[in-house]
């Protein structure tokens, strides 16, 4: 008989996949969103569909208590350390805030890493710290994107096209240039040839040269190249 992989047998495979997801769903319909940065770890608690026909205050308390348990678990699983700021759902009752603080500290007691928790602020924020024993599982398992350098954002096609156009203008300032060849990603070439064609034609006319824009499907956003061909002297 085929042997079922160990991780699948004990349901560990699913937990491993979830370790790299920012959103963690809670049983009552709420969720927590974990955002790890170089400065701190920000955790946002959302009630979502967790109404259960209870009052707003009661729903907030139940969602926060459930989130506290899951947050303590995720801190251990993901090896998150340093400064951690948790944005709990706002609660009015002081006794509910005290209960949440007590429950949070209780769940953190089983953590082998040293932890310190502060009081809930008037904005519903709880600051805490956790001993950084080793790099988090996310930082250990991933490398920064070489295109966005870890920002999670890449320049728009328009931004890239306008930047290339400025560089192109600088190249045309040289004397004795007959042709300027530009290679850019396909979407940038499409933008230049359609949205900026009049500017390219005006630049050709003013500098008395030829501009050739070539789309290159092998280029990624941010890549480009410009080469110039000088005029040939006719004797």
Query: Biggest β-sheet: count, sense, barrel?
Result: 6 strands, mixed
Could you give the order of strands across the largest sheet?
Answer: 1-2-3-4-6-5
What is the number of helices? 8
Beta-strand fraction estimate:
15-25%
Kindly name the structural category: alpha+beta
- Distance separating the two termini: 86 Å
What share of residues is helical? 25-40%
Give the tally of structural domains: 2
* Radius of gyration over all CA atoms, rounded: 28 Å
Q: Rough shape?
A: elongated
Low-confidence stretches: none
Mean pLDDT: 89
Give the SSE string: HHEEEHEHEEHHEHHEE
Walk me through what this model shows.
There is one protein chain. By secondary structure, the chain is of the alpha+beta class. It folds into two domains: 6-141, no CATH class; 157-230, Hypothetical Protein Ychn, Chain: A. Helices cover 39% and strands 21% of the residues. It is built from eight helices and nine strands. It has a six-stranded mixed sheet with strand order 1-2-3-4-6-5, covered by helices on one side. A three-stranded mixed sheet has the order 8-7-9, with helices on one face. Helix 3 (56-78) packs parallel to helix 4 (94-108) and helix 6 crosses helix 7 (186-195). The termini are far apart. 18% of the residues are buried. The model has no long low-confidence stretch (mean pLDDT 89).
